[in-house]
Specification:
The strands form three sheets. The chain has an 18-stranded mixed beta sheet that branches. It has a two-stranded antiparallel ribbon with strand order 13-14. The chain has a two-stranded antiparallel sheet with strand order 21-22. It has a single domain, classed as membrane protein fhac: a member of the omp85/tpsb transporter family (Porin, Beta Barrel). The two termini are 15 Å apart. It is mostly beta strands and 413 residues long.
């Protein structure tokens, strides 16, 4: 479930869980009136158009356009309805989400969402710890899912529950780099060929415990954040890829003068029945959204391992009344494994290729960037990052969180 919250989520299996699903959805909709009573928000309906300036061109989608509506206080005071659409040359994504209030707020909360995405340039470098940047294919795929969430928080600790129904198909693939398919390792090539045309569908049930002692969720300068979750997937008769996925994430922020040091670790482990191979669409991925210095969808496998340290300090500017800027440096060690307990070697390496071995080291990268925060809300307005790894200098990643009508920060949880 942790990856569901960070958008690296991949669903898992249910054996005899229909009763659990009914109870969870019952909790969700019973939570709606409770949320309305606890939220001391305005009952005036607010409608804000949103626009993503970066949607005009993205490497994964080509030229396109993205935006939608952000509606507050509809039906319930403090509620939020978001409608998003992104249409581009090689990609389309559409999502509707409704939450009476923030899932991580005090007390009981719930949310529902529906999402459908078509992808014509989903990068595929292979599976496991030995993939290389020089071998890349593009996958054509579509994926839709419906999700219901329940959250309960008391003080600095809480629990999140989620039910997700998904269905998707890997329809075709094509080489991006020269003769890429024939240069894949035997396992990666076989799994790509086997997945072509196969529909992956099923339901997942997940629970995540968290503890958050950070002084600020958007701009933390001290404290820690811990997530520990398990997700189970039940496939349909046509897609019986049952598995359990366990996630553990921890971060700690330490102020040293005007500099804030942040330490982060992430581990994901997948258990499959009889060690069967999972479809590519169900594998967790590491990309430039999580690690500076690598490409989109760069690493994919059953298990993920990541460690990094970040140093962030304020940068004086002439527009501090509008934007408060900080600069940061990130050092990361990471890799993707078929089984991290039998394959991972906790030694960082800058090598771009690894020969056959029983254990493989962690890849390394360094990133530099800037973040601009709103003085009014303390939330990020933009983040820009450029990274370097053994793959070379990665294209900079830039995110904007703006309401174009009022030029105020707009945060999407």
């Amino acid at each position: 479930m942790l990856f569901g919250l960070t958008r690296l989520a991949n669903s898992a299996k249910i054996r005899q869980g229909s009763g659990v699903l009914v109870v969870l959805f019952g909790m969700l909709f019973c939570a709606l009136p409770l949320c309305a009573q606890q939220e001391a928000a305005s009952d005036t309906v607010e409608v804000r158009p949103t626009f993503d300036p970066l949607s005009i061109y993205k490497p994964s989608g080509g030229f396109g356009l993205g935006g939608g509506l952000d509606v507050r206080n509809l039906w319930l005071p403090g509620s939020r309805l978001t409608i998003d659409a992104y249409i581009a040359q090689h990609r389309g994504a559409y999502e509707i989400a409704f939450a009476p209030r923030d899932l991580l707020s005090e007390g009981l909360a719930g949310a529902v969402s529906v999402r459908y995405e078509t992808q014509g340039r989903l990068p595929y470098y292979g599976i496991g710890p030995r993939t290389v940047d020089r071998v890349r294919l593009f996958i054509n795929a579509d994926m839709g899912d419906f999700a219901g969430h329940v959250g309960y928080r008391r003080g600095s600790t809480g629990v999140l529950g989620a039910v997700r129904f998904l269905s998707g198909t890997l329809s075709s693939y094509r080489n991006d780099t020269h003769n890429a398919f024939n240069r894949l390792d035997e396992n990666s090539a076989a799994r790509l060929a086997d997945d072509q045309g196969e529909r992956v569908s099923g339901a997942s049930l997940g629970a995540t415990f968290y503890a958050d002692t950070r002084n600020d969720p958007y701009r933390p300068m001290s404290g820690a954040l811990l997530y520990a979750g398990t997700e189970a997937f039940w496939g349909t008769a046509a897609s019986s890829h049952s598995h359990l996925r366990h996630s553990l994430s921890a971060s700690y922020h330490l102020p040293v003068g005007s500099v804030v040091l942040a330490f982060r670790s992430l581990a994901v482990h997948t258990q499959t029945r009889d060690d069967t191979a999972l479809p590519i669409l169900l594998l967790p991925r590491l990309s430039n959204r999580f690690v500076a210095g690598i490409g989109s969808g760069r690493l994919a496998a059953n298990d993920i391992l990541l460690f990094d340290v970040r140093a962030e300090a304020p940068i004086p500017t002439l527009v501090e009344d509008r934007v408060q800027s900080t600069g940061f440096v990130i050092l990361s060690a990471f890799n993707a494994y078929d089984n991290l307990f039998t394959q991972a070697r906790l030694v960082p390496s800058w090598a771009d290729t690894f020969g056959p071995s029983r254990r493989y080291p962690l890849r390394s990268s360094i990133g530099v960037g800037m973040t601009g925060y709103s003085p009014e809300t303390g939330r990020p307005i933009y983040t820009a990052t450029v990274g370097y790894s053994a793959d070379g200098i990665a294209a900079s990643t830039l995110t904007l969180n703006l309401d174009p009508r009022q030029f105020r920060p707009l945060w999407r949880w």
